[in-house]
TrEMBL record:
Known cofactor(s): Mg(2+); a divalent metal cation
KW Electron transport (keyword) present: no
Organism placement in taxonomy: Bacteria, Bacillati, Bacillota, Bacilli, Bacillales
Subunit structure: Homotrimer.
GO MF terms, alphabetically ordered: 4-hydroxy-4-methyl-2-oxoglutarate aldolase activity; metal ion binding; oxaloacetate decarboxylase activity
One Pfam entry name: RraA-like
Role played: Catalyzes the aldol cleavage of 4-hydroxy-4-methyl-2-oxoglutarate (HMG) into 2 molecules of pyruvate. Also contains a secondary oxaloacetate (OAA) decarboxylase activity due to the common pyruvate enolate transition state formed following C-C bond cleavage in the retro-aldol and decarboxylation reactions.
Protein name, as recorded: Putative 4-hydroxy-4-methyl-2-oxoglutarate aldolase
Entries under CDD domains matching the protein: RraA_family
Class of enzymatic activity (EC top level): lyase
Keywords: Magnesium, Metal-binding
Length: 230
């Protein structure tokens, strides 16, 4: 097997209905329910008008300034996939632009996440296609390889496995292990119910008297804080 030139054509696919259940939830709340350990770094940001992204990861390990294997991933991608690219966080060359966005849209690919640069942002500001990346530059890529498809990669400070659920919005990207999806969904539903109750208390003007507020003071006192009224 030639390490650096591997293209895995098979990947575990989840029930699309299960994946789609994450669509209504903010990435921040999902991150909270995963102990805040699975969010990509803040430099991975959405570009263009569409800032919601959800799908299973088709991964690309690309050479710096090269998009040959990114193009191969486009050929392989199925509707609903998110192509996630480890591009070495190179800020000197873009590795995708409007042609690749158009191909992806025509195949109903869910979006791109690129640990590197993109270009043709004007297309993204007009069209309904989500792209998250580290930055923008007009300087284009080469097409020489090497690279790999559907291998474990690093993107935005997170390990991404082929088939991981990728959820993105204006707060960033969270990576969800498929085998944990059901349990995470249950936690998110509970968290959001609790937050809704908190919002009702706040809007009623009774926040200071709530159990949540009192628990803050209790926690501080238990950890040695003194309230000094002078």
């Amino acid at each position: 097997m030639s390490v650096g030139k591997r293209i895995y054509t098979n990947r575990e696919n989840m029930n699309p209905t299960l994946v789609d259940r994450f669509r209504e939830y903010p990435s921040a709340n999902v991150s909270d329910c995963m102990e805040r350990l699975y969010s990509m770094n803040a430099y991975i940001k959405p570009f263009g008008k569409q800032k919601r992204l959800l799908g299973q990861a088709l991964t690309v390990k690309a050479s710096i300034a090269d998009n040959m294997l990114f193009h191969q991933a486009l050929l392989m991608a199925q509707p609903g996939d998110v192509i996630v690219v480890e591009a070495g966080r190179d800020m000197n060359h873009s590795i995708c632009g409007d042609i690749m966005y158009s191909i992806a849209k025509s195949k109903n690919i869910a979006g791109f996440v690129v640990d590197g640069c993109i270009r043709d942002v004007d297309y993204l500001q007009k069209e309904d296609f989500p792209v998250f990346a580290a930055g923008v530059t007009g300087r284009g890529p080469y097409k020489n390889g090497p690279g790999e498809v559907n291998v474990d990669i690093s993107c935005g400070g997170q390990v991404v496995h082929p088939g991981d659920i990728i959820l993105g919005d204006e707060d960033g990207i969270v990576v969800i292990p498929p085998q944990e999806a059901e349990g995470i969904l249950a936690k998110v539903e509970t968290l959001l119910n609790n937050e809704n109750q908190s919002m009702e208390i706040i809007q009623s003007g009774n926040w200071e008297e709530s159990a949540l507020a009192k628990n803050i003071e209790k926690h501080l006192e238990e950890n040695g804080y003194k309230f000094i009224h002078e």
